[in-house]
Design a protein that fits this description.
Oligomer: single chain
Number of helices: 3
Number of strands: 0
Shape: rod-shaped
Number of domains: 1
Largest sheet: none
Structural class: mainly alpha
């Protein structure tokens, strides 16, 4: 590729009836100026492209890092979700076991209380039977003692009155 300096230093051979040297030099000066301007612009654009490629490269690195971060965050989120689900299952399992224990304990207590009630009912029946037997025996004794008193009164002749306990206290 030609540089502006190459164009500036270019020498043409002179021939018989050749081009007008001043006119060619003026034209070449104009071409040199335009070419130099284009050449500088081209260098600047190349530099700008290099800078943009560096920026693009950094942006791609940043994008890759962000994508990796998002993937990692998604994995962590999924793992957290799985752990939370497992923990929830464990809590439910423990709650069920505890509920079963409470129900079992309550059932055992109810069964125990029912046994005690049955025992108390049996004791109550025994006490009623004993009390009934005791009262029957007392009634029989009372009736037999009333009969004995009547027999004694009959044998003494009904005229004697049994002493009144109030009269006996007067002495």
């Amino acid at each position: 590729m030609l540089t502006p300096l190459d164009i500036h230093n270019k020498e043409f051979k002179r021939g018989f009836r050749g081009y007008d040297i001043d006119e060619v030099d003026e034209f070449l000066d104009e071409v040199i100026k335009d070419f130099e301007s284009l050449y500088k612009e081209n260098l600047e654009l190349k530099e700008e492209i290099r800078k943009q490629q560096e920026h693009l490269s950094r942006y791609k690195e940043t994008e890759d890092a962000l994508q990796n971060t998002m993937l990692l965050a998604q994995k962590v989120l999924e793992e957290s979700k799985r752990n939370a689900e497992k923990e929830a299952e464990l809590v439910l399992w423990e709650a069920r076991k505890k509920a079963e224990q409470i129900i079992s304990s309550a059932h055992d207590q109810v069964t125990e209380k029912l046994k005690k009630v049955e025992q108390l009912k049996a004791v109550e029946k025994q006490l009623k039977a004993r009390l009934k037997s005791f009262l029957s025996a007392q009634l029989e004794m009372l009736e037999s003692s009333v009969l004995d008193v009547e027999q004694v009164q009959d044998s003494l002749g009904r005229e004697e009155v049994i002493c009144d306990p109030v009269e006996d206290n007067r002495d």
